[in-house]
C-alpha cells in the first residue's frame, strides 16, 4: 500500500517523539511491504518562526492532499516564549484550531488506558486502580465554544466579552454515530456527558443522541452531567467504556482522564473527519522544559501512528503489531523517565524507539 | 444578636440534614446568648408539589428580607421523578438558579478539605493524600453560560441551539476581589483558572484578574488553563490555596475537587452577595436514594451553618465552636456510613447531630 503522510513535528519535544514514530512506521513498511511517503510541514511556533503565522494556507492544502497527518506537539512556555506576545489568533495553538476546522476533524478520540505494568504511576488508591480501566473519550472537535462567534467590546462603557456555544443537530448526530460505532466494537456502552439542566445546547445534544441510540439497539446509552462525570472519573473510572461529549467538556474531561491513568506519555489520540482522513497526535503537550534532552516518552506518538494505520488505512494487523511491540517492551521492563519505577530499565527517547521498532 | 434566617430544607435528604444543623445552631444560640428566628421556605421539588413552580416570587421576597438562607438540597432522581417531566425552566434546579440570580449571589465559596481522620476515604494514592490539602474554590455564580441568552431554533431547516457566555469587567472584578480578600486570610495564593487560549471571555477574565492582583501585593497570582487544572487537582491538590474561576469551570472543578477529598458529606459551601447576605448549603446533592433513612451525613450542612455565622454575622467564635465540635466527634471516632472505616463507631444522621450539638 502507498501511504502519503503529512508530518507536523511541531514544537518542544515534538520533533524527538515524531522521529521515533517514523522509525517504527518505517520498520512496519519494510516488514509488511508498504511504501510510506512523508511530507514535513510547519505548524505552531515552528511556523511562526519561519512564516510569522502558526499555519499557512499552503500547509493546509498539502495536509488536505495527504492521506493522514502525523503530529508531534504544538506550543511553548506561555510565560517566557515570544510566541505568546502575539495576538491570540496568531499564537501556536491558533494554528492547531484552524487546522482542525479546515480539515473538518470533528471526531476526537482520546483513549485513557491504565496499563497494568504502569499501575504504580496511577494517582488513584490501589483498590480503585486494581480494577484497571480502558475508556475512550469521544470529543466533538469543531463546534461549540471553540468555534462560535466571539467579541470583546464596550457595552455602556463597560468592557464585555462574549463567546457563543452553538451546536446543530447534524453536528451532534455525526459525532454521536461515531461514538456508537466505536462502542459497538468495544464494550457496547456510551455515556453521553452534557449539562442538560442548564444549557439549551446540552438539551439538544441529549435529544439527538437519544435518536441516534435507536439506530444502535445493541449499544447501551446513559447520560451524565459534566460535573458528575468529573467526579466519577476519579471515583471509579472502570465504569466507563465510551464517553461522548462536546468540545469544551471533552477538553477538560479527557485531560482529567489522562491524568487519572498516571501515564500521559502513553496516550495516543486521533482526530477524524467524515471519511478516512485523520490527524494523529499524542495526548500530552509539547513539554518545552524537557525538549532536546532525549528523555521524552515517544510511546504516545508511536501508538498514535498505530491508530493512524488502523483508522485511516484499515491496516489492523500492522497496528496490532505496533501495540504488541509496545506491550512487549513494557513487559521487558524498559521505561522512559516519566513512567520509571523500581527495578525497571531506564531508557531515553531514541532507545525506546529502537526497542519498539526491533520488536515490531 | 438577633439572627433572622430563611430555611430551605428542600428535597431528598435536605430536611434531615437541615434539622441537625438547626439543632446545632440552637445550641449555639443558647450558649452564646443569641436569638435565632427561622422562617421555612419551599424551593425545588417541594415547591413544585405545592405551588407547581420550583420558586415563587413570595419565597424570593421572604428570602431577601432575611439575614441569611440555610439550605439543604434540591432535586430528585431525574430518571424517575415526575418533576423531570416538566419543561427545563420549571424543574427543581431552575429554582436554585433563579434564587442565586435574584439574590445577587455572585460569589460561591466551595472549600475542599482532606480531613486527616478521613484520609482513608480519599481516592488518591497514599503518598499524594499524605500531603493533605485544604483548598477553596471561588466560583463566579451569576454570570457566564448559566445566565447568558439561549435559544433553540431552526436555521435553514436544521435544529440549532445557542448558549452565550458573557462576562463584563465589573462582574470579573468583584469576584476576583473576593478571591484575593479570602486568599489574604489564608495562604496568600490565588490560582485563576480560564481557557485564555481559546475564549474571549477568558482573556478579559485574565486581564481584569491581573489588574485586581495589583491591589493585593501580598497575594501571589498564577494562571492555569482549565484542562490543566482538571489534571492538577488529581495529581497534586496540595499545590492550591484559592482557585478563582468562572461559573461553568467552577461547577466542574469544584465537584472534581470535592470528590478528590473522598468525603463530600463533609463539604460546606457559601454563596455570597455584595453585602453580608449569603446562602449556605452542603456541596453534595439531594441523594434521593438514601432519603428518609436517617443515614445521610449532616456534617456538610452543619459546617455550612458555621460558614453562615462567620461570613454573614461575623460570629467567628461561634463558627469556631462548631468546627471544633465537628473535629472532636471525628477524633472520637464517630462516623456516618459514607465516611465509615474500620474501628470507628457508626452513627445515624440524628445521632451525629446530637453528638456535635453536645460538644459545641
Ligand atoms: C491547545 C488547545 C487549544 C487544545 C484544546 O483546547 O483543544 C488542547 O488543549 C487540546 O486539548 O488539544
Ligand atoms: C443544580 C445545578 C444547576 C447546580 C449548578 O450547576 O450550578 C449544581 O450542580 C451546583 O453546582 O450547585
Shape of chain A: globular
By DSSP (H or I, 4+ residues per run), the number of helices of chain A equals: 12
Largest sheet of chain A: 10 strands, mixed
Distance between the termini of chain A: 18 Å
CATH superfamily of the largest domain in chain A: Isopropylmalate Dehydrogenase
Low-confidence stretches of chain A: none
Radius of gyration of chain A: 20 Å
The fold-level CATH name of the largest domain in chain A is Isopropylmalate Dehydrogenase
Secondary structure class of chain A reads alpha/beta
- What's the level 1 CATH class of the largest domain in chain A? Alpha Beta
The domain count of chain A comes to 2
Interface with most residues: A-B, 60 and 60 residues
Give the % helix of chain A: 40-55%
The SSE order of chain A reads EHEHHEHEHEEEHEHEHEHEEHHEEH
Lateral arrangement of strands in the main beta sheet of chain A: 2-1-3-12-11-4-5-10-8-9
Q: List the bound ligands.
A: 3-isopropylmalic acid
Structure in words:
Two copies of one chain form a homodimer. By secondary structure, chain A is an alpha/beta fold. The first copy, chain A, has two domains: 197 residues, 3-Layer(aba) Sandwich (Isopropylmalate Dehydrogenase), CATH 3.40.718; 139 residues, Isopropylmalate Dehydrogenase, CATH 3.40.718. In chain A, 41% of the residues lie in helices and 23% in strands. The first copy, chain A, has twelve helices and 14 strands. In chain A, the strands form three sheets. In chain A, strands 2-1-3-12-11-4-5-10-8-9 form a ten-stranded mixed sheet, sandwiched between helices. A two-stranded antiparallel ribbon of chain A has the order 6-7. In chain A, helix 6 crosses helix 7 and helix 11 packs across helix 12. The longest helix of chain A is centred in the first third of the chain and has 19 residues. At the A-B interface, strand 6, strand 7, helix 7, helix 8 and helix 9 of A face strand 6, strand 7, helix 7, helix 8 and helix 9 of B. The complex binds 3-isopropylmalic acid (2 copies). One 3-isopropylmalic acid (IPM) sits at the interface of chains A and B. Chains A, B: Catalyzes the oxidation of 3-carboxy-2-hydroxy-4-methylpentanoate (3-isopropylmalate) to 3-carboxy-4-methyl-2-oxopentanoate. The product decarboxylates to 4-methyl-2 oxopentanoate. Chains A, B: Belongs to the isocitrate and isopropylmalate dehydrogenases family. LeuB type 1 subfamily. Chains A, B: It is found in: Cytoplasm.
Amino acid at each position: 500500500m502507498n501511504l502519503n503522510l503529512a508530518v507536523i513535528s511541531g514544537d518542544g519535544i515534538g520533533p524527538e517523539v515524531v522521529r521515533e514514530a517514523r522509525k517504527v512506521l518505517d520498520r512496519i513498511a519494510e516488514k509488511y511491504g508498504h511504501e510510506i511517503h512523508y511530507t514535513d510541514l510547519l505548524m505552531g511556533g515552528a511556523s511562526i518562526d519561519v512564516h510569522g503565522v502558526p499555519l499557512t494556507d499552503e500547509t493546509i492544502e498539502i495536509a488536505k492532499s495527504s492521506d493522514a497527518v502525523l503530529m508531534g506537539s504544538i506550543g511553548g512556555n506561555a510565560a517566557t516564549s515570544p510566541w505568546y506576545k502575539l495576538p491570540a489568533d496568531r499564537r501556536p495553538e491558533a494554528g492547531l484550531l484552524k487546522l482542525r476546522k479546515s480539515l473538518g476533524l470533528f471526531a476526537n478520540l482520546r483513549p485513557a488506558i491504565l496499563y497494568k505494568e504502569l499501575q504504580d504511576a496511577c494517582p488513584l488508591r490501589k483498590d480503585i486502580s486494581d480494577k484497571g480501566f480502558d475508556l475512550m473519550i469521544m470529543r466533538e472537535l469543531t463546534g461549540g465554544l471553540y468555534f462560535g462567534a466571539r467579541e470583546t467590546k464596550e457595552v455602556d462603557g463597560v468592557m464585555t466579552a462574549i463567546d457563543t456555544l452553538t451546536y446543530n443537530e447534524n453536528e451532534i448526530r455525526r459525532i454521536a454515530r461515531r461514538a456508537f460505532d466505536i462502542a459497538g466494537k468495544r464494550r457496547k456502552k456510551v455515556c453521553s456527558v452534557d449539562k442538560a439542566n442548564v444549557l439549551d445546547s446540552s438539551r439538544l445534544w441529549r435529544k439527538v443522541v437519544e435518536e441516534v441510540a435507536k439506530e444502535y439497539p445493541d449499544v447501551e446509552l446513559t447520560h451524565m452531567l459534566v460535573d458528575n462525570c468529573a467526579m466519577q472519573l476519579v471515583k471509579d473510572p472502570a465504569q466507563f467504556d465510551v464517553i461522548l461529549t462536546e468540545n469544551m467538556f471533552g477538553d477538560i474531561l479527557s485531560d482529567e482522564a489522562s491524568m487519572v491513568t498516571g501515564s500521559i506519555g502513553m496516550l495516543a489520540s486521533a482526530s477524524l473527519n467524515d471519511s478516512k482522513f485523520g490527524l494523529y497526535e499524542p495526548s500530552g503537550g509539547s513539554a518545552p522544559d524537557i525538549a532536546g534532552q532525549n528523555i521524552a516518552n515517544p510511546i504516545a506518538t508511536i501508538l498514535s501512528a498505530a491508530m493512524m494505520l488502523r483508522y485511516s488505512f484499515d491496516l489492523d494487523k500492522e497496528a496490532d503489531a505496533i501495540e504488541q511491540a509496545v506491550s512487549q517492551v513494557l513487559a521487558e521492563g524498559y521505561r522512559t523517565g516519566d513512567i520509571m519505577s523500581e527495578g525497571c530499565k531506564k531508557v531515553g527517547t531514541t532507545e525506546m524507539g529502537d526497542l519498539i521498532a526491533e520488536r515490531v
